Structures are given as structure tokens and as C-alpha cells.
């Protein structure tokens, strides 16, 4: 009797803990200034759903760093609700700064829709003074003749900055379809990884680390102090994390999205 009552009591206490946890976790997603304690693997420090229907502002629902649309970038139907459409010439979306250090581990996630392959195009990056801290996008050149997804991090914030080894996809890049890309940086391991549609498909080495204090850029990169590598197509649901996501985390994130593109009722979970 007492053992059964004890088990029931344990169960009730567990439910109470779960309920309290839910109450405690929920406000984290709306916090304007995430603290170190909020550096959860499963809570993005910046999250731009890009679901607005008009205007030149894109909300950052977890970090408060509202994005600004430049040079004709506009909202269109996306992979999840709406997305931002970019002309590959000068369109982009930028924030003023970010709420994390980038000389420590981080991850970046986005849905991308590429309309033209030749050259190198960047879907998401973060500005340093002279170069991007990272670039997540596509490259098609003499070395990557069929086109490859790429996640790269320059070794220093300098003109002509070197790359030790880029994380280049083993899968051929595709045009005119939505693809989910994730770039992961593990500072302690000096490694970067690239995931395509939830699967790890490339890795690279970073020997030097540095902190970039510029803004998040959607639709372009930066090199030699100038904006470049403008993205021809669409970008949707951009997330930045203050940790290196694991294989399982990325697979769970990918599975958290609806199966196909189009409008959604309600909001997509920001718990990944
Ligand atoms: Ca969206």
C-alpha cells in the first residue's frame, strides 16, 4: 500500500517538475537578451522565420535583432510560411550585430532555394570587418564542376583570408527546390560540418578562431571588405545557435518541419 502510494507520489512529483520545466522553458524563446544559461542546444539565439507578408523588416523572434530588407528583397511564399526572395545582384537582409561570440562553437541553419548555379553564392553569413565569419551556400567552379553546397570559415578577418579546409558537400547542389542546410562549428575540435536535409555530408578544419561582431546577413557574403556572393533565389527560416548541434540534433531539427512547402497554420516550433 505504502509502496504503491509512494510510486503514485513520485509520479505526481514528476508531473509537477515537468509542468514547472515547461513554464520555465517557454519564456526563454522570447527573451531579448539570452544569457549563458539559455545557451541551450535546442533554443536558437537568433531566429528569423521570415514570415512577414510585406514591408522591409524581418522579426528575430528569439534574439530581438530585427532584420532589414535591402535593395528590393521581398517576402514571397516560402518553405515554411513565407520566405525572402533575393535577386542575386544586391538584395539581402541584415541585422545589426548578433547576441553571441563566434570564436566559440555555434551552428547556423536555413532553408535555401537556389535558382542559378554558376559561381559562389552565399545564403547566410555573418559580417566581420573584412570578410565573412562564415558562409553557408553553394559553389560551382572548376573544382566543383557540378555544384556543391558549402559551409566555410575564413581563418582570419583579413583580405584574401585563407581557408584551411572547407566543408564541401558530397551531394550535388540542386536548383529550383528547397534544401535544408546546417553549418556547425565545434571550436574545441577545430572542426566544421555541413548537413544537407538533415544528413552530414561534408566536414573541414579551422585552425584559427576569431570573433566577428558584425550583423547576420541573409543573401550575401563578404570578402576584401565588400559585399559579394549575392544569392539568386529564396531563403527561409534562418536560425543561429550558440552551440555545435549534434547529428541527432540536426536530424531532429530537419524532421521538425512539415513535409512540403507552403503556408502553415500556427507557428513552427522554435525549440530547435
Ligand atoms: Ca518562413
UniProtKB/TrEMBL annotation:
**LamG-like jellyroll fold domain residues:** 104-248
The residue range of the signal peptide is 1-30
| Pfam families for the chain | Laminin_G_3 (PF13385)
Keyword terms: Disulfide bond, Lectin, Signal
User: InterPro entries from the entry?
Assistant: ConA-like_dom_sf, LamG-like
- Organism's domain of life? Bacteria
Concerning Gene3D superfamilies, the annotation shows: 2.60.120.200
SUPFAM superfamilies hit by this protein = Concanavalin A-like lectins/glucanases
Which GO terms label this protein's molecular function in UniProt? carbohydrate binding
Name of this protein: Concanavalin A-like lectin/glucanase superfamily protein
Source organism of the structure: Amycolatopsis cihanbeyliensis
Amino acid at each position: 500500500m505504502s509502496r504503491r502510494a509512494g510510486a503514485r507520489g513520485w509520479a505526481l512529483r514528476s508531473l509537477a517538475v515537468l509542468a514547472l520545466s515547461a513554464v520555465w522553458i517557454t519564456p526563454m524563446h522570447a527573451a531579448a537578451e539570452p544569457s549563458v544559461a539559455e545557451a541551450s542546444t535546442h533554443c536558437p539565439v537568433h531566429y528569423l522565420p521570415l514570415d512577414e507578408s510585406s514591408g522591409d523588416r524581418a522579426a528575430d523572434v528569439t534574439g530581438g535583432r530585427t532584420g532589414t530588407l535591402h535593395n528590393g528583397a521581398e517576402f514571397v511564399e516560402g518553405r515554411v510560411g513565407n520566405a525572402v526572395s533575393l535577386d542575386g545582384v544586391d538584395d539581402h537582409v541584415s541585422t545589426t550585430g548578433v547576441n553571441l561570440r563566434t570564436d566559440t562553437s555555434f551552428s547556423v541553419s536555413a532553408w535555401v532555394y537556389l535558382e542559378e548555379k554558376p559561381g559562389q553564392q552565399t545564403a547566410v553569413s555573418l559580417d566581420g570587418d573584412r570578410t565573412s565569419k562564415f558562409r553557408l551556400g553553394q559553389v560551382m567552379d572548376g573544382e566543383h564542376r557540378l555544384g556543391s553546397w558549402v559551409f566555410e570559415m575564413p581563418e582570419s578577418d583579413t583580405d584574401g583570408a585563407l581557408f584551411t579546409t572547407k566543408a564541401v558537400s558530397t551531394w550535388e547542389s540542386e536548383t529550383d527546390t528547397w534544401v535544408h542546410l546546417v553549418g556547425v562549428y565545434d571550436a574545441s575540435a577545430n572542426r566544421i560540418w555541413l548537413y544537407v536535409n538533415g544528413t552530414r555530408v561534408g566536414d573541414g578544419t579551422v585552425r584559427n578562431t576569431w570573433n566577428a561582431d558584425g550583423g547576420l546577413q541573409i543573401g550575401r557574403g563578404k570578402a576584401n571588405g565588400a559585399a559579394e556572393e549575392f544569392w539568386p533565389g529564396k531563403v527561409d527560416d534562418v536560425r543561429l545557435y550558440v552551440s555545435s548541434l549534434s547529428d541527432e540534433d540536426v536530424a531532429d531539427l530537419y524532421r521538425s518541419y512539415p513535409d512540403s512547402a507552403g503556408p502553415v497554420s500556427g507557428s513552427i516550433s522554435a525549440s530547435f
